[in-house]
């Protein structure tokens, strides 16, 4: 019953928006932008970009420096936003896999472009930072 109400509320909210406005503090697009462009959100999206499913431990190894707690929270948030698909298998020990939804793949493509630009220009960025010190 509660799940149906939540789904109806989300559908009603979605119908209010034809396009988001991240400059409005009332628009949910600002929170979604924060989730996608967060330090770990970007890295999760790109780590899953290969189109394969990955286990939690694989993602944790791929994204060095992320704690288990932050990775779990990031995956949960991206799943709630519709970018990540979490598939849990009813086995012992628990087996959970993560992959991108079509929406997540689109977002991943876009943040991967930004990552590529940063990596291509890091020598310029570092030289400017060094000159400023």
TrEMBL record:
Family annotation (Pfam families): HxlR
Domain HTH hxlR-type: 27-126
Keyword Transcription regulation: yes
Range of residues in the leader sequence: none
Gene3D superfamilies associated with the record: Winged helix-like DNA-binding domain superfamily/Winged helix DNA-binding domain
PROSITE patterns from the UniProt entry: HTH_HXLR
UniProt keyword list: DNA-binding, Transcription, Transcription regulation
MF annotations from Gene Ontology: DNA binding
Entries under PANTHER family matching the protein: HTH-TYPE TRANSCRIPTIONAL REGULATOR YODB, TRANSCRIPTIONAL REGULATOR, MARR FAMILY
Descriptive protein name: Redox-sensing transcriptional regulator QorR
């Amino acid at each position: 019953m509660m799940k149906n109400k939540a789904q109806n509320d989300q559908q009603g909210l979605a119908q209010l928006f034809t396009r988001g406005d991240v400059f409005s503090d009332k628009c949910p697009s600002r929170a979604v932008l924060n989730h996608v462009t967060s330090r770990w959100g970007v890295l999760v999206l790109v780590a899953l970009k290969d189109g394969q499913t990955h286990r939690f431990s694989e993602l944790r190894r791929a994204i060095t420096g992320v704690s288990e707690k932050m990775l779990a929270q990031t995956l949960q948030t991206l799943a709630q936003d519709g970018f990540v698909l979490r598939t849990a298998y009813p086995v012992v020990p628990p087996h959970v896999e993560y992959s991108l939804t079509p929406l997540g793949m689109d977002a991943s493509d876009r943040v991967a472009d930004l990552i590529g630009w940063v990596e291509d220009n890091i020598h310029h960025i570092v030289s400017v930072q060094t000159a400023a010190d």
